[in-house]
C-alpha cells in the first residue's frame, strides 16, 4: 500500500531533499522539448538522413548544435542525482552514444551544407553552450 508520498508503507524515502531538488532543477533545465518543437520536420532518430533537409540554426540551435541530446543528458543527470549516484554510469554511457551520434550527424550535415554548416559549427558548441 502506498502512502500520500507514493512510498510503500514500511519503506523510507532514502534520497535527501537537496538531491531531489537539484535533480528536479536539472530536469526542468533540459530544453529538449523546445528543440524538438523548433526543429520541426527535420527531426528524426539519431543519425537519420532526411530527404531535402533544412539547416536549423535558430532557437535552441543558436546555443548548441545538438540541443535535444543536451536536454536528454541534462534530464538524465538530474534523474541520476535525484535517485542514486550510481545512475551516473548509465548517463556516461548515454553521453558516449550521443557524442558518437552527433559526430556522425555532423559529417552528414557538412556534406549536405558545405557552405553553411562549417561556419555554424565554428560558432556553436556541440552539447554544452560555451564549453563542449
Question: Can you walk me through this structure?
Answer:
By secondary structure, this protein is mostly helical. The chain is built from five helices and no strands. Helix 2 runs antiparallel to helix 3 and helix 3 runs antiparallel to helix 4. The radius of gyration is 18 Å and the shape is elongated. It starts with 16 loop residues before the first helix and ends in a 9-residue tail after the last helix.
Which features characterize this protein?
mainly alpha; 5 helices; 53% helix
Based on CA atoms alone, the radius of gyration comes out at: 18 Å
> What is the count of helical runs?
5
**Whole-number average pLDDT?**
81
Shape label: elongated
SSE order, as H and E? Answer: HHHHH
Strand content: under 5%
Q: List the uncertain runs.
A: none
Give helix % range: 40-55%
Distance between the termini: 46 Å
Main sheet makeup: none
Query: Which structural class is indicated by helix and strand composition?
Result: mainly alpha
Number of strands: 0
Protein name: Isoprenylcysteine carboxylmethyltransferase family protein
Membrane topology: Multi-pass membrane protein
InterPro entries: Phopholipid_MeTrfase (IPR007318)
Organism: Kribbella hippodromi
